[in-house]
Amino acid sequence: MNEKIRYTFSPDKTLPLYIDSIGYNPQELDFNRPEGYPYYHWLQTIEGEGVLEFASEKYVLKQGQGILLTPYTPHMYHPNYKKTSEWSTFYLTFSGAAIDSILSALNMNFSAVYEESEVSLFYRHINKIFHNLEDNVQTNLMGYDLSTYLYTFLMLLKKYGKLNNRLSTLQSFEKIRYIVEWLEQVYPENIGLHEISKKADVSSQHLNKLFHDTFGMSPYSFLVQLRIREAKRLLLTDPDLTLKDLSQKVGFNGVSHFVSTFKKREGITPKQYRDLHLNNHSFEGEV
């Protein structure tokens, strides 16, 4: 594969397991996610090398190595410029109503670096998913099919993945986990720092400290990041949605506020983001 591939889905979140997105990037870019990602995130090196930074530590991802990140794990990654600027990867983001209990039963409910014990084993499985998505682009794969692929991948990772490094957890996150989970549910509503502090039952100053210790940003900035993240998903999965309707769905007070905030954080306008990514095999699955 030489072209960038990205499939995004609108999953049935009542399923025990579901795939949020899957993709291949022939040239991985620099990413900085101080708020982490809301789903479990698998990122694996196909060629070249990459560097992932987490909690002031660095982990080199060589060919055949990948990292499993738990939700909301602050991180950044980039090609290993000391050796090469080339870094091709595939990724998988996923969740599910039973994901925590399944990963706990497998003793995999933590962020960690893994290495394939059989060359290209994980890559072949992900490539199989790509081929099935391409073959079913008209009829679409159902959520049950994608859940089966995800379960098989987790079994392969458990059986054939050599655990290289287990990443330390951020204790500060445990103190605000329930607030983060609450924000995931209410981000479209008209809320601000006052409502967040009231829900947390702590002063705004103390809440600010907890969020800065965990994510390096204020609670309100974290809320805005959630809105932007959902806006990016809707831009790809519902391309006919107007910017006015989209901005309302994700909690912005007006289109101009949404567009200016999006451009400030992403460097491009929502329309430019949509046009750029819809040319890269983006796909809305019936899941």
UniProtKB/TrEMBL annotation:
One of its GO terms (molecular function) is sequence-specific DNA binding. Residues 177-276 form the HTH araC/xylS-type domain. InterPro entries: AraC-bd (IPR003313), Homeodomain-like_sf (IPR009057), HTH-like (IPR037923), HTH_AraC (IPR018060), HTH_AraC-typ_CS (IPR018062), Tscrpt_reg_AraC-type_HTH (IPR020449). Keywords: DNA-binding, Transcription, Transcription regulation. It holds the Pfam family AraC_binding. This is AraC family transcriptional regulator. It comes from Natronobacillus azotifigens.
